[in-house]
Design brief:
Shape: globular
Helix content: 40-55%
CATH superfamily of the largest domain: NAD(P)-binding Rossmann-like Domain
Strand content: 5-15%
Order of helices and strands: EHEHEHEHEHEEEHEHHHHHH
Number of strands: 9
Amino acid sequence: MLIADTVAVIGIGLIGGSYGLALKARGLARCVIGVARRETTRHIARSVGAADETTDDAREAVREADLVILCTPVGSIADMAQHIAPTLQRDCVVTDAGSTKVGIVRDCEAILGRRFVGGHPMAGSHETGPQWARADLFVGATYVLTPTPQTDPAALETVRTLAEKLGARPLLLDALTHDELVAFTSHLPHVVAFALANAVAAKQKENPHAAQLAASGFRDMTRLAASDPQLWTDICLANRDAVLTAIAEFERQLRALKSALVDEDATGFTAALRAAVEGRASMLEHGSLGK
């Protein structure tokens, strides 16, 4: 089943490349046009099958597109929408994959009107580039859509169907609720991973043996700290207020554990850990990670 005859994916890295692979593997598009600034990226996208054609000219890429997916960094999505607007077909649907939504939805809707549907597939990796793209990246993932009262119902249905056909589970939320929630579930874990990596690196400078004692716990807890620093700077600044709220709650939880240790309160400390075990199990049971 074709979702669109021609799909333009602007920013054909890990996420954009995974869209391209999935669209082709599932027969959802006849032609996928990938857009990237660097020839190396475009070459890889073509070689792994993430795009039928590639270009560095976004305006040309969207001329014949029925669907456009904006996969550029969050700070540049609205600018890209402004850039491509003059050459979009009248009935072309535009969506994005940005991990913050309030600013993107506000700005892109002002530029593109009813045809824009905010989206965020809750899938990804700390790796970057189309060489890491996977056709099954979205399978089983929650795929948030953030329509507004102005969103064209037909455009929303196109993107909702896209999410389903990619194997994801569509979830409609308003943009503000989305940003408040992902600040805790996605943005905070990255901030914590970076902070933990910095803390241990500081200890290693004091005593080089620290690196020799860093085992699977350190590796697993800091995996997200291998992510692109500029990308996560942009995300956290774009969702600044919600991320600050999430950090404040994390600090509160950390202070509670610290206080229990200072007071040698084994009962309180154990109770906090047990609550964490139960809370994590509940999250996995009711979320997409446990499926």
